[in-house]
Design a protein that fits this description.
- By secondary structure, the chain is an alpha+beta fold.
- The protein contains nine helices and ten strands.
- The chain has helices at about 5-10, 85, 110-115, 145-155, 160-170, 170-180, 185-190, 205-225, 230-244, and strands at about 15-20, 25-35, 40-45, 50-60, 60-65, 75-80, 95-100, 105-110, 120-125, 130-140.
- Strand 2 and strand 3 (about 40-45) form a beta hairpin.
C-alpha cells in the first residue's frame, strides 16, 4: 500500500500481450507495466485453469497525440512500445536489468537488450500471478562479470544478485577453501588424533592438509595479484602443518 502509486498511476501505464511459443496471443494473460520516476513494476496474471508460457514483448496499441502544426490542433495516432521502452531500459549489450519477484522474494537478472528485442519469458500455472518490481540497471565492466552471471544462473532467481556475483568472482578461492575446511576433513583430523602426547599425528594426514593449504594459498595469491608471494605460500602452508 505504501507504494500503491507504482501500480495505480496511468501516465506511464502500458498493457501487454503474451505471445505463446507458437506466435499466437494468449488472451487469458493480463500484463501491465507502470513507472513512477525511477520506480518500475510489471504485473502478470493468468486468468484460466491451465498452464501458460510465452513472451511479454509488445504493448497493446494506445492513443498518442501529435501536434499537427495547424494552430493548436492535434491528431491521434496508435502506437505500441516494446517492454524495454515501457520499463525505460537501455537497448545495448553492456547493460543488464536486475529485478525482484515480490511474491517469492528472489532477484533475477536479464540482458537489457534481450528485454528490448525479445521481451521477457514467463511461465504461469492456473490463476497464478507474477509481480516484478525493484527494477534497476547495471553496466557491465571490462571483465564482463554480469554477462558471466547471466550464463551461470541460466534464468534462475537468487536471494541477492550482488552476493551471488561476489560468490562467482571468488569461486577460484572458495573451491580450495571448501576442500580444506569441511566436516569430512575435520572428522579425518579428529580420527587421526592420538590421546598420547608422545605420539604424532599420521604423516599422511599432515601431507594432505599441507597440500590443500598450498592450493588455497596459491589461488589467494593469484587473486591478490601478488606475484612474489610463492615463498609466503610455502611458509604459511608449513606453519599450518606444524600447528596441526
Amino acid at each position: 500500500l505504501s507504494r500503491r502509486k507504482l501500480f495505480a498511476e496511468v501516465s506511464d501505464f502500458l498493457l501487454y500481450d503474451l505471445y505463446s511459443p507458437e506466435g499466437t496471443v494468449n488472451e487469458d494473460i493480463f500484463a501491465y507495466s507502470n513507472r513512477i520516476g525511477n520506480e518500475r513494476s510489471l504485473v502478470i496474471y493468468h486468468n484460466k485453469y491451465s498452464t501458460a508460457s510465452g513472451w511479454i514483448r509488445l504493448s497493446s496499441a494506445y492513443t498518442d497525440k501529435l501536434a499537427s502544426g495547424q494552430g493548436n490542433s492535434s491528431e491521434r495516432v496508435l502506437r505500441r512500445k516494446n517492454l524495454g521502452e515501457g520499463l525505460n531500459l537501455h537497448n545495448d549489450e553492456m547493460h543488464f536489468t536486475i529485478f525482484r519477484d515480490f511474491i517469492s522474494g528472489l532477484e533475477y537478472i536479464r540482458p537489457s537488450k534481450q528485454i528490448c528485442d525479445e521481451g521477457l519469458y514467463v511461465e504461469l500455472g492456473a490463476y497464478k500471478s507474477i509481480v516484478y518490481w525493484d527494477f534497476y540497471e547495471v553496466q557491465d565492466n571490462e571483465w564482463h562479470q554480469y554477462a558471466q552471471l547471466v550464463d551461470y544462473l541460466q534464468g534462475r532467481g537468487v536471494l541477492d544478485i550482488q552476493e551471488t556475483l561476489k560468490e562467482i568472482f571468488l569461486q577460484p578461492v572458495l573451491y580450495p577453501f571448501r576442500e580444506l575446511v569441511n566436516p569430512g576433513m575435520f572428522t579425518y583430523l579428529f580420527d587421526s588424533h592420538s590421546e598420547k602426547i608422545e605420539e604424532q599425528i599420521n604423516p599422511e594426514v599432515l601431507d594432505e592438509v599441507e597440500q590443500k593449504s598450498r592450493a588455497l594459498l596459491r589461488e589467494v595469491q593469484t587473486m591478490a595479484q601478488f606475484g612474489d608471494g610463492e615463498y609466503l605460500v610455502d611458509e604459511i602452508a608449513q606453519e599450518i602443518r606444524r600447528k596441526i
